[in-house]
Amino acid sequence: xxxxxxxxxxxxxxxxxxxxxxxxxxxxxxxxxxxxxxxxxxxxxxxxxxxxxxxxxxxxxxxxxxxxxxxxxxxxxxxxxxxxxxxxxxxxxxxxxxxxxxxxxxxxxxxxxxxxxxxxxxxxxxxxxxxxx
Length: 133
What we know:
By secondary structure, the chain is mainly α. It has one domain (3-132). It has five helices and no strands. It has helices at 3-34, 40-47, 50-76, 81-106, 109-132. Helix 3 (50-76) packs antiparallel against helix 4 (81-106).
């Protein structure tokens, strides 16, 4: 791909990611309360670790979103199935590693599910946005 196309893709991916990022922390806190049934103080304890939260959202969720975006875009452009399948396997491997890391950190399956589902929603939103580009 030439530099102009890569720059256009980068701008669009950044815009798409930022459009869902604004709601991510709010959705995370809501799910920790409603699904994981954590108390306000437990939620605040998790959310107060801004280093973890920012790393999770700005690294993991961005990586997952980007992968979803690229898969969606490649599917739209009828990329070779083997390439798309490899990227899908990379996504599944990343999710398994994330789940193990989260379980070690929280030791609470419902809390892990909340973080896992948030990452999955970033993937799905990225997949949709990439398919529309």
